[in-house]
Structure formats: structure tokens, C-alpha cells
Amino acid sequence: MPGDARRVSKGFDRVIAGADDAMWIVTTVTDGRRAGCLVGFGAQVSIEPRRFLACLSTANYTYGVATSAQHLAVHLISSESLALAQLFGAETGSEIDKFEHCEWHEGPHSLPILAGAAGWFTGEILRRDGFGDHVGFLLAPTAAQPPDPGNQPLRFHEVGELIPGHPA
């Protein structure tokens, strides 16, 4: 059976990689602590009411800050913003203040909004659910800045070689 499990895992990984999902950066703030990370597991999960699920690794510094947050900001990253994805994906907030290395401003709910994002929305955290090594944060949108028409989002294949600041 172990060989079958490895074969299924490899096949599953290739199917998911074939979807080449858009990448997101999630930011938050709690008690004056800002945090943010690159997120590959995020999707709209309801049309009406609108809902988005952002999944954060439990090993991630941002997860620790988000556990006591009431809101998250979710940023759509342009394919031209690889450096921003590298900062939020390959560095860890437990070692550096990522916000000292990029342009941002305070947005709704005092959330850090990244100037280099193609678009963004903020959401109230309605619930948190464990999904293995990630926790899903169910969000109800509270504000949004849409991307310009023709924006091409950063895709998984463009960041697949990044070495995460924390293991997933």
C-alpha cells in the first residue's frame, strides 16, 4: 500500500499543479503586530453571500498573528510582482519586518494594504477551521479595490521554486 499512496500523492500533486492557481498575499494586524504571507490555498467559496476561504499554514508567523485577528486583507498579485511574492513567501515575519521592505498603507480595519498588489479586498473573519497543516479563515468581504482590466495574476508555476520562510 505505501507504493500506492505515493503514486496517488504524486498524481494528485500533478493534477493540482496543472490548475496553476493564482497566488495571494494575506496581511493582518493584531495588537500592533503586522504580518503577511504568500498563500496558495485560497478561493471564493460562495456566490451569495460572497465568501472567501484563505488557508494559512499553522507553521507560519502570520497564522499566529491571525489567530487573534478579526479581519484579513487578501491581495491579488500581478505576474509582474514576483519580488513582492518572494518577500512574503520566502521570508518569515519571525525574523524580519516584511513591511519595512515594501510600500504599503493602512487600510480598512487598520490592515496593511500592499501598494504593489494588483487588487485587494478585506474581510471579516467569520470562522476558522482546521484542514490538516493549514487553517482556513472564512471571510466576508468588507472593502475591495479591484485590479485594472487585463491584469495577469501571479500563478503557482511562477513561485514553485521559492523556498518558504517556514516549512509548510
Explain this structure to me?
The chain is an alpha+beta fold. It has a single domain, classed as Pnp Oxidase, Chain A (Roll), CATH 2.30.110.10. The protein is built from four helices and nine strands. A seven-stranded antiparallel β-sheet has the order 2-1-5-8-9-4-3. It is globular, with a radius of gyration of 16 Å. The model has no long low-confidence stretch (mean pLDDT 90).
List the helices and strands and how they pair.
Layout: H1 2-19, E1 24-30, E2 33-39, E3 42-46, E4 51-57, H2 61-66, E5 71-76, H3 82-90, E6 104-106, E7 112-114, E8 119-131, E9 134-145, H4 156-159
Question: What do we call the CATH homologous superfamily?
Answer: Electron Transport, Fmn-binding Protein, Chain A
CATH topology group: Pnp Oxidase, Chain A
Proportion of beta-strand residues? 35-45%
Low-confidence stretches: none
How would a crystallographer describe the biggest sheet? 7 strands, antiparallel
The number of helical runs is: 4
SSE class:
alpha+beta
CATH classification, class level: Mainly Beta
Radius of gyration: 16 Å
- Arrangement of strands in the largest sheet: 2-1-5-8-9-4-3
Looking at the overall shape, the CATH architecture is Roll
Global mean pLDDT: 90
Q: How many structurally independent domains?
A: 1
